Amino acid sequence: MSQALSYFRHITTIPRLSKKEEKIRAFLVDWACDKWYAYVIDTVGNLVISVPKAWTASDEVVILQAHMDMVYVQTPDSTIDFETDPLDIYEEDGYLRARGTSLGADNGIGVALAMSASEYPNHPPLELVFTIDEEAGMSGVLGLDFSLLHGKSVINLDNENDQEICISSAGWIGINLEKQLDFEETWAPLSALSIYGMKWGHSGVEIGENHGNAVEVLLGFFQKTSTVLGVADIQAGTASNVIPSRVDTIIVISDEIQFRQELSEYLSYIRTQFDCPDITFDIEKVQENRRVITDAQALFRHIHAIPVGVMKMSEKITWLVQTSISLGQISIKGGRLKITYLARSSKNDELSELVERVERHFLDLGFAVERDRGYPGWQEDPEGMLVKIISTEISRVTGNPPKIIALHAGLECWALISGLGTWATAVSIGPVMYDIHSVNERLEIASVERMEHILEGVLKRL
């Protein structure tokens, strides 16, 4: 087994929710102490480990960077407690997976690769930068103490294909909405409806895959049917940066037979519009009394009026999503409706315009609006030395020249470049993984071994 895979297997036993990275950081500190590496924890909780050079290597410091947290999602029948339990990982068809949950290869394998790189026989001085909270706001890299760093070449280990070098990423802004709802009594029987079976996915990387959004499916059906007489509750979404694949709601219906027929027909139509062949629904009576939302149909019609998904494709890179927005979470708690959107764009003016349009829409509806701290995009020179060296090593190890890509998602490179100064350069690489932020997340074992050889060759040449 490769050293990186060995480290990663251990990392999957350690809970590492965003904003709760204490246990993984403690593990990394213990590892650094065992290796006699110096380390510093900055004021926000990032960890910087300094690795001295191998004897024959250059004196130029290279930064290897990954984030310690992961996105946890699980199937409805999974019993894992993400704050205390290890993941249940297994091998299948050349991949590592986790039973009933996300795997956390994003970005646990990046942490593992940085650790294993310190053991290469020939490498320059390394600064292993392990940040917190990448998945829930990037507060780690935004608060990083750059006075601790001396390198100007940054290799971010958060990409998802060993045949790619990422040199650009999109900026994002989160939109948090909240409103106190009015309710009214109902004596009609209630029904619990679940629409599920859509594909999970990252709201940046996979927004262009036409998976659809379960919340939008439900709201669209509300506009089509006359059988829904009231809505008492709605719940969907596991994280702001994950496309909801399931939505649960409590409703009042007038005619169950007609309701089932209309919803079945509507989901058949949805299957023709999105890549969601397994979408289906369950409905059952609820033996409890609840109040229903006053004028729910008008409320959900206004929410549905904001389109989600791809807003614009890039004119220069035809396959790249330029601007998008995703409705990531919706819930009612304590009588208050909460909604989160995540807007992304590689064009800062388009991003601002989109967010302002959504905010105006909901302010007019009486919602309180709060922005998550966003960040701009980042662009590296495709002809730069770092890109060329990595390209050569990928070609050597895989036998094929890499693809230079731009990513419609956030990477920490932009903040690293901003903090290190104009002379710094950054790229992002990583092994092959699929369906991150989902229960289908999987990591190709052979690609981890290839990435170790690539990274070793790069560090030997820097």
UniProtKB/TrEMBL annotation:
GO terms for cellular component: cytosol. Coiled coil: none annotated. It comes from the Bacteria. GO terms for molecular function: metallodipeptidase activity. GO terms for biological process: proteolysis. Pfam families: Peptidase_M20. Transmembrane segments: none annotated. InterPro entries: Peptidase_M20, Peptidase_M20C. Gene3D superfamilies: Zn peptidases (3.40.630.10). This is Aminoacyl-histidine dipeptidase. The lineage of its organism: Bacteria, environmental samples.
